[in-house]
Amino acid sequence: MALTLRGRRVSFDWLKPPPATPDGTMSIWDHLRELRYRLIIAVVAVTIISIVCAFFFQRLYGLIAYPYNEAADMVLADRPEANIELVNSGIAAPFLLALKISAFAGLIFSAPIWLYQLWAFIAPALLAKEKKAAMAFIASSTPLFLGGVGLAYLLMPKAMAVMLAFTVDGTTNLIDGNDYLSFIMQMMVVFGVAFLLPVVVVALNIMGVVKATQLAQARTFVIFGSFVVGALATPSTDPFSMLALAIPLTVLYIIAEAVCHANDKRRGRRSVTAERDPVPEIAA
């Protein structure tokens, strides 16, 4: 691909990914070219969708403010004297808030694109049969990520109400809009990324890095680690948010382990069949 500008031919071939090889092997330079290409596609997609989302800023702000409004109503229902307000502090604060909301919405809505780019970067290292088996499960990464984001959004009012309930009588709790958005973003991204755990586990199993028996041996430590991650990764300090993340992580890990067991059994049957019925050599 090339363009002619002022009589000079400008080539964009350097943006293209390296050509695929039958066995999936690449040099370090080709891996870097592939990574650069995938990052450019992901960044361009997030940028374009963020610009589109900027035209719907008012509606997006309503969605973002919904958890706060619900949490404030919960607190005021029990303590009508509580004084809680969501404010913008500073001249540039409203503009920065609009930029952050648009960028965050662009990141969420472009998830199918950048998740596919992640898959496409890993795919060359897999054999053709493994690609077909992995593609079906990798395709579930988008609903898993969006499911984690959605769960965090639904749980946010309760988690915020628990923390806002500690507002001391006679004081005004002024919640900065940018700080509130940062809190929302952290919770939703943490839940979304955490829900990708089964994709990572199964991908490692398909590539032969881990086996289902190893996953079974590590199950107890993973369950314990899920509760630790739930306590440390969520910005809120209430046990409700910790359990809301730890329990789904545990369930998803068990599901991924079951998928890996089935995959290892299929791989074992194929190897037995190959040893029993070897491909005959063709005489020269």
Automatic annotation (TrEMBL):
Source species, domain of life: Bacteria
Location in or out of the cell: Cell membrane; Membrane
Segments traversing the membrane: 37-57, 101-122, 134-156, 183-204, 216-234, 240-260
DNA-binding keyword on record: no
GO biological process: intracellular protein transmembrane transport; protein transport by the Tat complex
Membrane topology designation: Multi-pass membrane protein
Protein role: Part of the twin-arginine translocation (Tat) system that transports large folded proteins containing a characteristic twin-arginine motif in their signal peptide across membranes. Together with TatB, TatC is part of a receptor directly interacting with Tat signal peptides.
Protein name: Sec-independent protein translocase protein TatC
Organism: Auraticoccus monumenti
